[in-house]
Amino acid sequence: MIEGRTFLGTWPRRLSGLFDVGVSFADQRILDVGCNMGIVGYEVCKQGPAYYHGVELLETHCQIARSIFTAVPVESVFHDFDVTDASVRNEVLSEDYDVVLYLAVHHHLVKKRGKAPAEETARDLFRRCRRSLIFRGDDFDAFAELADAAGFEQGPVIKDPLLHPFCAYTRRP
């Protein structure tokens, strides 16, 4: 474990609800923002996506994810950088992901980088997303406004009594 870093719950608990939001990962291009050590991505890749791109602030976590993904038969790439840095985002991220995973990241960006950079990051992620953005967080009202402005509609919220709820936002036709 990295000194001073913890997370709430077990991996199964953190995954609970992710596959209940009505989004198929099969044959999709996936962006996982805040991929941590790749455990969620590993489980997503069992669904057969065409491509998986994990981004994470901590280099150590990306190294662990790369190691885990040597055994995953899905094309994958990992980058460690601050996702609020627009110039690096533009250099590293593709313009066309089918599904974006944005799980328990947004509230950290608001707290550590400020509301404006966090919202700009979310708007950019919606722009890069062709189909569905799966959000896990605590401020659904504010995030729903960002989603609506980007042309996405909110699906059902999957709640957990201990962790932040999940929700999929789907691009309007």
Automatic annotation (TrEMBL):
Pfam families: Methyltransf_11 (PF08241). It comes from the Bacteria. GO terms for molecular function: S-adenosylmethionine-dependent methyltransferase activity. Residues 31-131 form the Methyltransferase type domain. This is Methyltransferase type 11 domain-containing protein.
